[in-house]
C-alpha cells in the first residue's frame, strides 16, 4: 500500500486547533480509525435489545429500561473520543488534539523526535490499523493510536523528521544529545565542583 492510499479520517476537518507559523505548512493530519468503535456499538445494541426483550417477556420490570442509557453511554463516549482526536504533522512540529469534555493540545518540535515505533495487535494486523509511538527527547511520548496503515504513517513521520532536522543542522545536533535540562545542569554543577577542587589543590601546591 502506498502512502498516497493511506486514509486520513481527519483530513477533511480544518486545522483550527493549531495555529501555524508564517513559514509553517501542514504535512498531513489523521486520526483514529472510526471502525474501532464498532464493537462498542454492537455491545450497546445487543444490551439495549436484551433489556427490551426482557421487559417484553416480563422477565424484569419496565424500570429495567432505565438501564439502557448506561449501556449506550460507553459507545457514545468512545465515539466522541475517536472523532475528537486528531494527529497532525507540520514542517516544524508534531501535534495532537484530544479530549471529550475539554480540549487538550500538545505540540513538540520535529527536532525533539528521537525515534518512532509502531505496534499492532492481532486484530489490527488483520484489518490494517495500529499505533505509532513517537519518542520525544526529555519528554513523554506521543501516540498516534489506532491509525490506518501505521507503516505508512511511520514512514511519513520519519520523512517529516528528517526534513525538519535537515532544515536546521545546529538544532538537530542539539536534539541528538539525550537528557533533560535538569540532568545537564546537575552535570554542569558537578564539573564546577571538580574545577573548584583542582583550583584549591593548585593553590595549596603553590603555597608550599
Description:
The protein has 208 residues and is an alpha+beta fold. The protein has a domain of 28 residues. The longest helix has 27 residues. The relative contact order is 0.13.
Brief sketch in words of this structure:
The chain has 208 residues and is of the alpha+beta class. The protein has helices spanning 38-56, 68-83, 122-127, 150-167, 169-175, 181-207, and strands at residues 26-30, 86-90, 93-98, 104-109, 113-119, 129-136, 142-148. It has a domain at 181-208.
Task: Output the strand order for the largest sheet.
Answer: 1-2-3-4
Order of helices and strands: EHHEEEEHEEHHH
Largest sheet descriptor? 4 strands, antiparallel
Shape: elongated
Average predicted confidence as pLDDT: 82
Judged by helices, strands and strand pairing, the structural class is alpha+beta
- Uncertain runs: 1-14, 169-176
- The helix tally amounts to 6
Distance between the termini: 78 Å
Strand % is 15-25%
Biased composition (Basic and acidic residues): 159-173
Transmembrane segments: 37-57
Region (Disordered): 159-179
InterPro entries: YdbS-like_PH
Amino acid at each position: 500500500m502506498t502512502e498516497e492510499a493511506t486514509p486520513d479520517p481527519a483530513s477533511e476537518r480544518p486545522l483550527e486547533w493549531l495555529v501555524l507559523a508564517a513559514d509553517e505548512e501542514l504535512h498531513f493530519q489523521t486520526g483514529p480509525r472510526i471502525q474501532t468503535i464498532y464493537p462498542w456499538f454492537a455491545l450497546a445494541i445487543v444490551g439495549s435489545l436484551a433489556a427490551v426483550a426482557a421487559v417484553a417477556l416480563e422477565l424484569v420490570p419496565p424500570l429495567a429500561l432505565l438501564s439502557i442509557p448506561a449501556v449506550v453511554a460507553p459507545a457514545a463516549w468512545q465515539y466522541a473520543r475517536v472523532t475528537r482526536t486528531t494527529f497532525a504533522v507540520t514542517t516544524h512540529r508534531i501535534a495532537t488534539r484530544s479530549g471529550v469534555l475539554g480540549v487538550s493540545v500538545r505540540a513538540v518540535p520535529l527536532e525533539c523526535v528521537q525515534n518512532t515505533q509502531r505496534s499492532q495487535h492481532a486484530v489490527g494486523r488483520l484489518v490494517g490499523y495500529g499505533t505509532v509511538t513517537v519518542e520525544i527527547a526529555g519528554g513523554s511520548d506521543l501516540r498516534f493510536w489506532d491509525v490506518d496503515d501505521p507503516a505508512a504513517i511511520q514512514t511519513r513521520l520519519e520523512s517529516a523528521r528528517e526534513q525538519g532536522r535537515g532544515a536546521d543542522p545546529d538544532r538537530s545536533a542539539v536534539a541528538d544529545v539525550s537528557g533533560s535540562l535538569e540532568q545537564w545542569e546537575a552535570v554542569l554543577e558537578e564539573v564546577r565542583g571538580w574545577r573548584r577542587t583542582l583550583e584549591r589543590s593548585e593553590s595549596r601546591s603553590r603555597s608550599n
